[in-house]
Design brief:
Strand content: 5-15%
Number of domains: 3
Structural class: alpha/beta
CATH class of the largest domain: Alpha Beta
Bound molecules: phosphoenolpyruvate, magnesium ion
Number of strands: 16
Largest sheet: 8 strands, mixed
Distance between the termini: 31 Å
CATH topology of the largest domain: TIM Barrel
Radius of gyration: 25 Å
CATH superfamily of the largest domain: Phosphoenolpyruvate-binding domains
Number of helices: 22
């Protein structure tokens, strides 16, 4: 039995097994400033210079490898990191701290990081934290060069690489992989959409974040298992669990060939009922993770990330370029661009949101676009211009009432004046919109269900709050019944409907949704092939029976058991075929 099991946020799928490599984060360390006792300040300065040069070399190596593997856009972050550690002002400050204040180099760097944090402390907004991390992360590379903490674990003589255990999921942590292959990454902090998360998925390193104090719970060198899809981490596993994890990892490898084959075929059930599978993406970089040919198009492009990654609002021309670059990759396939969905946990560093007592219930999504019409009109205009490159469609987030939808459509019609109109769809994320769908659907060209927010608002549970995470229940019969109601209503009024929340990318969720009547799912890139493969195993009547039984359950546990048993059964069929064909 494992010593401890932790549940966190699934960031990158796969099974990872290896010894825990605890990465000491100097910013998390409580130790006081250390002054030089035996070492001369000049020698300490030399040590710092050497470490800085090694860190720059390392970052340059990573930058070159990332450019080769993922392209120049993904690699750009390393150019910025190199500039941070080579900044002459920062260099002068550290030199002074070592030579005049006689601080140890590690403490001098920490003092510099403290200064950054002090500067940004008075500013508000979630993105500010990422900003500070962008400045802190490259300096931590220098500290690691100075300390080489736990590096002996990295000489693993052909055995599995270590599982990095860190405070925060940063780009430099992920790309240590180039020097020392990592079997997995587990962290206390790090958003699903952070740079680090995008890179972890791109490199295929199983990763879980949101693990409270994992840093102090793991023991250096003990065996850890990372279950990336489930967001589970087992600490201190015994030989039996180690064997199970090894078998799971080997099966995953073998299953890849079956998945690749399934991915090239159109999405359908075992008896040929079509279920299209599109992809959800956040930025053009995501295109490195999959082949657009394997998808039915883009079911959700979250445009806000293009705004969040920048220091100021993107111009109309910038936006057109981004949208066109996506459309060009999906010739003949629909690409659904969701208009700006900020507010709540997604903030822009250059826009000061008013302080709200309940941001998730406040000024976010379409509500903000209708208030800030210039910005909305500019985005619509950029989308219309990008249309010459492909089949662009507009989707409105957080729609609550018919009046909002009509106003948004009037604004879009103003921009379209005299030009060909563009299909306008709505996201169903608010329970009131789900219950009054018949009326909303009359004014919409298509519908997409955002189960992430729909669950949050249905259960009155903040989707990011670990204190109430147990009540966030996408498989609760109440949510399953609403989903069935949405599928039926759209069928009755003849409006195309899809599901683009996380649930669509889970095997259990895909089985339920197809059985409940949805014929279009949109999922994150790592799940396209899996969802297509499992749906191909099950006849439509069986899917209907499963969906009915799950929705008729009394509790989430009951519903989830029904769906999980079915998913495990059909998945085992795929695994066995893969194993026997590779034997
Ligand atoms: C959703 O709410 O399900 C959704 C797809 O949107 P987001 O996760 O970006 O809020
Ligand atoms: Mg949402």
């Amino acid at each position: 039995m494992s010593r401890l099991e932790l549940k966190g946020t699934p960031v990158s799928p796969g099974v990872g097994l290896g010894p825990a490599w605890i990465i000491v984060d100097p910013s998390a360390r409580q130790s006081p400033r250390r002054t030089l006792t035996e070492e001369a300040p000049e020698a300490a300065l030399e040590r710092f210079e050497e470490a800085r040069a090694l860190a720059v070399e390392d970052l340059q190596r990573i930058q070159a490898a990332t450019t080769r593997e993922l392209g120049i856009q993904d690699a750009a972050i390393y150019g910025a990191q190199i500039a941070v550690v080579q900044d002459p002002d920062a260099h002068r400050a550290i030199r002074k701290l070592i030579l005049e204040e006689r601080l140890e180099p590690e403490s001098a760097i920490q003092a510099l990081i403290d200064r950054f944090e002090g500067l940004f402390e008075s500013l508000e907004g979630g993105e500010i934290k990422n900003w500070v991390a962008d400045l802190r992360d490259p300096w931590l590379c220098v500290v690691r060069e100075l300390e080489s903490v736990g590096e002996e674990l990295l000489d693993h003589d052909g055995g599995p690489g270590p599982v990095a255990v860190a405070e925060e999921l940063t780009p430099s942590l992920v790309t240590r992989h180039h020097r020392h292959p990592l079997s997995g990454i587990v962290c206390n902090r790090g958003g699903r959409f952070s740079h680090g998360a995008v890179l972890a998925r791109s490199f295929g390193i199983p990763t879980v974040t949101g693990l409270d104090h994992v840093h102090s719970k793991a023991i250096s060198g003990e065996q850890l298992v990372v279950l990336g899809e489930e967001g589970r981490v087992l600490l201190g596993v015994d030989s039996r669990e180690k064997g199970i994890a090894e078998r799971l990892a080997a099966e995953r490898e073998q299953v890849q060939s079956v998945l690749l084959e399934a991915a090239t075929r159109p999405g359908a059930t075992a008896d040929g009922t079509p279920v299209a599978v599109s992809v959800n993406i956040e930025s053009p970089q995501d295109l490195a993770m999959f082949d657009p040919f394997t998808t039915a198009g883009v079911g959700l492009f979250r445009t806000e990330f293009a705004y969040m990654e920048r220091p100021s609002f993107p111009s109309e021309a910038d936006q057109t370029e981004i949208y066109a670059s996506i459309l060009e990759k999906f010739p003949g396939k629909p690409v659904v661009f969701r208009t700006l969905d900020i507010g709540g946990d997604k903030q822009l560093r250059y826009f000061k949101h008013p302080k709200e007592a309940n941001p998730a219930l406040g000024w976010r999504g379409l509500r903000l676009s209708l208030e800030w019409q210039d910005l909305f009109l500019m985005q619509v205009s950029a989308l219309l211009k990008a249309r010459q490159f492909g089949d662009a469609r507009i989707m409105l987030p957080m729609v609550t009432t018919v009046e909002e939808l009509r106003l948004a459509r009037d604004l879009i019609a103003q921009v379209c004046a005299g030009k060909q109109s563009i299909p306008v769809g709505i996201m169903i994320e608010v329970p009131a919109a789900a219950m009054a769908l018949r009326e909303l659907a009359m004014d919409a060209d298509f519908i997409s269900v955002g189960t992430n927010d729909l669950t949050q608002y249905l259960f009155a549970v903040d989707r990011d709050n670990p204190w109430v995470a147990d009540l966030y229940q996408p498989y609760h019969p109440a949510h399953l019944r609403i989903l069935r109601h949405i599928a039926r209503t759209c069928g009755a009024v003849g409006k195309p409907v899809s599901v683009c929340g996380e649930m669509a990318g889970q095997k259990t969720g895909a089985l339920f949704l197809a059985g409940a009547g949805f014929r279009h799912l949109s999922v994150a890139p790592p799940f396209v092939a899996e969802v297509k493969a499992i749906l191909r195993e099950v006849p439509i009547e069986e899917l209907r029976r499963l969906a009915h039984a799950a929705a008729a359950s009394h509790t989430s546990t009951e519903a989830l058991n029904i769906l999980r048993n079915a998913a495990d059964h059909y998945w085992q069929g795929i695994v066995q075929r893969a194993v026997s064909s590779s034997a």
